[in-house]
Structure to design on (1364 residues):
C-alpha cells in the first residue's frame, strides 16, 4: 500500500481541535506524500500538544504566520465554520492550495466571496465532504457510473446521529439542515450525478425540547426532485438510540443498491432471547475514519499532480444552497424550486 | 394448528378470477371454520372450474341467486372494483356479512354509499387490505404497540413491483396511487397508529412510456405528516427488475425496526464473481400467500365471534382518501392537507 | 399451483399420531392428486378424530383391514419404527405401494427383510427422509448438480434440536445417531452424491444426565470420508437454547454454498442494547412443513407416473448403516470403514 | 485513541520481508509507545528500503549487531521460521524481550531449546498468533469468558485460503497442518479455554497436484476432543475461489455464536440475475491488518508494564504439538491422544 515518496507536499494545518487532530494524524500516518510542517491555533497549547503527538516541529498562534511560511504548499483549514472564509481569502492571497472542512460558511454570499478569492488566485480547493470517500458510498457511486443499475429512479438516504449534540454546538451550527442534512444533500448529488431542482422539507422536534427552544429541529424528512428525473428522500434524526446510522438505497432501471452500517465486529450471538449483534460503530470519527484518511490523501495527490480536487468549491456551495432551500421549505410549508444554471 | 370446528361459517364467494381463486383455496385449505357453499361469477365456466377444484357444490352466474341462499352467512366479494359497491349494497340488504377486496371503489361517494348500506344493515365488514396480516408487518406493528421502539418518529416504506401491469389493467386501476400506493398508505396508518394530516407526492414516468401515455405514472415518492408528529416517506416503482420489493423501516424514541424481503430459499452461493442469493419471491401471490390465508381466517373468526372485523370499512375509505390526496398533490405540486375528524 | 386432477391416487394411512396427522393434512390440503380413503390406528379414537378433521370416511383399528381394501393403491406408514417392517411386508404382499417414515427399522437385518419383500412384490417404495425436499437443501443440491461449485471438497452439517426429547422417546429411539444424525447422514449422501467410506464419531453427554443414564449421548461430532474424495463433518446437539438449527455448508472447486435458518418473520429490531432478530422457527414441524408437503406430493406423483420414488429403500438402508457405523466408532474410539458395493 | 507516550520502548526488528514490513509499519504508525531504532536483514537493501519508508535510522546485515545495541529493549523476530530458535537464544542471552512470529520452529525439540533459553534469561516472550487479536475473534472469546453462551459444547472453525501458496513456500512450510492449521488449532485452544486431548485428521489433495507431489495436502478436516468435554472440528482448504474465508462457530449450554467474514464494503446490489455482494477481503494482510496492529501494540504494552505477554511461548509450543499430532493422525488413520500436564 505504501507509495513512492518521490514528491512530498508540505502542509500547514490551521485548527488543532477534534477535526484538526484527525487531519494531523491522517497526514502523519496515512498519507506518505504529505509532511505536516506547522500547526496554527489561537489556542497555542492545543497546537503544541498536537504537534508533539504527530512529530510536527513548528506551531503558531496566528495562522497568518503559517501562511507566510514559503515552504508550505497547502493549507488545511480545520477551524470553526465562521472563520473559514477569512482564512480562505488570506490563504489564496498567499498562493496556498486549500483543503477546507465543510461547510465553507453558513451564508451563500460569504461562500461566494471565498470562492471568488480562490478562483482569482488560481489555487486548488477541496471541500471536506468526506463521505464521498467512504468505501461503501464510493462503491455505490461506482455501480451507478458503470451502469450496473441503469438510470437512477429513486434514492433514499438514512442519516441518524446516535445522540443530539450539545446545545452550545446546536446554537452555532446553522440548524439541522446546514449542519447535518448538508452531508446527505451532497451525497444525493454525488450518487445521482444530477442537480436538484426542487426541495420539500418537513421537520419536527421529537427528541430534545432544548433544541426546539433554540429554534432548531431534531427530526426531518426531505423530498428532492432531480433534473434527470430521479426522486429522492432523506431522513434525519438527531437520535437513533442504537447508534450512528448511515445508509443509502437506490433503485435504477437495471437494478437496486442498498448499503448496511458498519459494525465493530462480525459476531452474531444467539441465546434463548434473541439472535443479536453488537451495536453499529458508534459515531462519525469511527464510522468515517477511513473516509477521512482517503479524503486527505486524495487532496494531497491532487495538489501534487496539479489537478482540480473533488469535491470542489462548487460542490460545497451547492450543498449549502440546498440546505438553505430546505430551511425555506420548512418555513413556508411548500416545495422550493432550485435554479439550475 | 388445527382448531376445533364446532362452529362453521357458510361462505359464498362472488368472483372466480385470480383473487377469487386465492380466496376459495384459502377458505378450503387454510380456514377449518369455513365452508364454501357456493361460487358466483358472470363467467359461469370460471365459477364451475374453481368450484370443482375446491369441492364446492353450487355455482351461479348471477350473484343475486347466491345472496338469496339462506344457508350463507357471509359473502366474499372478489370481483372487479367497479362492481364492489353494488354487490355490497345488495349483500347488506340480504343481511350477509361482507369481506370485500380493496379498494372498495375508486370514488369516495361510492364508498360512502356502500358503507352506509353496511352500517344501516348492521352486517360486519372487513376490507381486504391483506398486508396487515403479513407475519413480518404484524411483528412490526406489535413492536410499536408494545413500546419496543417508543414513540414513532420516522417511517419509510419501500414498495416496488417486479414489472408493470398490462396496460389494460392500468387503464382501469384508478392510477398508481389508488392501485398500488393505497396499500402503503394503509400500511403507514396501520404501523404508526395515527392519522395522516398532510400528503405531498411527486411522480414521474421512468419505466413505461405506455403508462405515461395513458395518463398515469410509474415511479413516485410521497412525504406524509401524521397527527402524532411522525413523518413518513413512501417510495413506489412499477419495476424493480430483481423482483417484488416490500419493506418498511421505522425509527422511534427507543429504537428502530427494519424488515427484509422474503426469499424462496436461504442459500448463499460464493463464486469467483460474487457472494450471491437467488432473487426474492417474485410477486404478491407468493410473497403475501400467508397474509391472504391469515386475513381470510381472521374474517371468518370475527364473524363467528360476532366482533367487528379489522381492517374496517373506515380503514378502506381512509386509504382511498389518502390516495386521492396524493393524486391532487401531484397535480398541484403542493402538499395537500387532510382533515382529521 | 393447483394441478389437474385427472388421475387420483387412493391412499390409506396407517398411524394417526403426530407424523400421521401431518401426512393426512398434507394429503388432504397440499396434494390435489391424492385421496385419503382410510386411516388405521390401534388407537381407534385417534384414527377417528384425524379422519373427521381431514374429511376421511373410513377408519380401522387393524391395518390389515385397510390393506384388504381393493380401492387403495398406496399405503403411508406413519407408525412407530418397530412396526414398520411388519407392515411393509404385509403391504407388499397386498400389492400396495409404500411410503414409510424413517428409519425403516433400527436393525439392518430387519430392514433387509422388509426391502426384500418390497422388491419381490414389485411395489414402489419411498422412505420419509423429508429434508431432501426442503427448498433450501434442494437448491443446494441443484447448485452441486449444475456445477456451480464444481467438485465437492468439504461439507459441514449443523443439526441441533431446540431441546432434548422426553426420556421415554430417547429410550426407544435407537440412540442419537439412529434417531437424529441419520437425517444428516442422508443429507450428506444427498448433497455430495457419493458414498461414505469411513465414519469417525465422538459423542458426549453435555446437556441431559438422564440421557446419559439411559446409555445415550446428547452431543456429537462426526468426520466422514467420501468415495469421491470429499470430507464432511456433522455436528449434533440435543439442545440449542435459541431454537432449531439446521444448516449446511459446502466448499467445492468452483465456489462455496452456505445456508441460513428460517425465521418466523423478516424483522430486525435495534435498541440501545443490540441489533436483534426473533428466534428461528422453533422445531421440525414448522421448519420442515414445506418439505413434508413436497415429499408427500412427490410420492403420489411418482406412484401415479409409475416411476421409482426417491429417496429409495436403499437410501433408507444406507442412512441406517452409517448411523450404526457411527455408534461402532464411538464405542471403539476409531474410524469405521464402510464397504461400498 | 492516542495514548500518552510517557514511556517509550525501543524496538529492534529482525527481518525486512513481507511480515517484517508489516511489523515496522504497525510499530511506526499504530503503536505510539514504540520506537523502531534499528532493522536487521541479511538482505541489507531490504532493511534499508524499509528503514527509509518508516523513518528508522539504523540498519544492519547481521542481527547480532542489533542485539549488541544497548538502547534496544525488545526484539521483533520476523525472519524465516528456520532461523527463529537461533535468534531467540541469542536475543535472550542479550537480555532482550522477544516478539516472535509463528511458528517458533517446525520441531518441538528446537522450540524447547528456544523456550528454555528465554526462561533462563527471564526475558518476556510473545508469539505472533495474531488472530487472537482480531476484534471479531476477541469478541467471541469475551462472550465465552463472560458466560453469555455458558459451557462450550461444540466448536467449528472454517479456515480457507483464496489460493495455494507458491510451491517453493509449501516445500519449506512444514506442511498444511504446521503452516495453516496451526492458527486454527491455536484459535480452538484460545476460544474454548481448555486443552486438546485427542486429534483426528483427514486430508487430501483436491486442488493442486503439485502440492501432492511435494508430499503435502491441500484440503483437510480435523476432529478434536477437549479436556473440558467440548468437541471441535476444523476445516481447511488452500483454495476458496471467492476469497479468504475465516469463520468460527460455537455452541454452548446457554447459546451459540457465529462469525462472518469481513468485506471491503457494505454494499448489496440486486439485478435481474441475483442479489449480490462483492467478494470478502482477499487475504490475510487485509483481513487481519487490525489484528497485527493490536497484537504489536499489546506486546509493547506488556513489555512496558513488565507483565507476561500473551499468547506465550507455551501457546506457541502447544499449537505446534497439535499440528504434529494431526500429521501423525493422517499418517496412521487413527486419532492421536495428547498428554495434558
Amino acid at each position: 500500500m505504501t507509495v513512492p515518496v518521490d514528491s512530498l507536499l508540505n502542509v500547514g494545518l490551521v485548527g488543532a481541535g477534534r477535526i484538526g487532530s484527525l487531519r494531523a494524524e491522517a497526514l502523519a500516518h496515512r498519507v506518505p506524500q504529505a509532511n505536516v510542517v506547522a500547526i496554527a491555533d489561537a489556542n497555542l497549547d492545543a497546537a503544541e500538544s498536537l504537534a508533539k503527538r504527530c512529530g510536527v516541529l513548528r506551531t503558531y498562534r496566528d495562522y497568518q504566520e503559517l501562511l507566510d511560511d514559503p515552504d508550505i504548499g497547502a493549507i488545511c483549514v480545520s477551524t470553526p465554520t465562521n472563520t473559514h472564509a477569512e482564512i480562505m481569502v488570506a490563504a489564496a492571497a498567499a498562493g496556498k492550495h486549500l483543503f477546507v472542512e465543510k461547510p465553507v460558511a453558513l451564508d451563500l454570499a460569504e461562500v461566494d466571496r471565498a470562492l471568488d478569492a480562490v478562483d482569482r488566485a488560481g489555487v486548488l480547493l477541496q471541500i471536506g465532504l468526506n463521505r464521498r470517500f467512504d468505501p461503501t458510498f464510493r462503491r455505490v457511486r461506482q455501480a451507478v457510473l458503470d451502469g450496473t443499475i441503469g438510470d437512477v429512479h429513486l434514492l433514499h438516504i438514512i442519516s441518524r446521529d446516535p445522540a443530539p449534540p450539545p446545545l452550545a454546538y446546536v446554537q452555532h451550527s446553522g440548524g439541522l439542515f446546514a449542519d447535518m442534512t448538508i452531508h446527505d444533500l451532497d451525497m444525493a448529488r454525488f450518487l445521482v450525478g444530477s442537480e436538484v431542482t426542487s426541495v420539500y422539507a418537513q421537520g419536527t422536534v421529537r427528541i430534545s425540547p432544548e433544541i426546539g427552544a433554540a429554534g432548531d429541529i431534531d427530526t426531518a424528512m426531505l423530498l428532492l426532485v432531480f433534473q434527470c428525473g430521479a426522486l429522492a428522500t432523506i431522513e434525519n434524526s438527531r437520535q437513533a438510540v442504537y447508534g450512528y446510522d448511515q445508509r443509502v438505497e437506490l433503485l435504477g432501471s437495471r437494478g437496486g443498491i442498498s448499503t448496511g452500517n458498519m459494525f465493530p465486529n462480525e459476531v452474531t450471538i444467539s441465546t434463548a432471547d434473541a439472535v443479536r449483534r453488537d451495536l453499529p460503530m458508534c459515531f462519525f470519527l469511527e464510522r468515517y475514519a477511513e473516509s477521512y484518511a482517503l479524503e486527505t490523501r486524495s487532496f494531497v495527490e491532487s495538489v501534487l499532480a496539479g489537478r482540480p480536487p473533488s469535491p470542489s468549491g462548487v460542490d460545497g456551495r451547492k450543498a449549502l444552497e440546498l440546505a438553505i432551500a430546505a430551511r425555506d421549505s420548512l418555513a413556508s410549508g411548500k416545495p422550493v424550486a432550485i435554479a439550475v444554471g
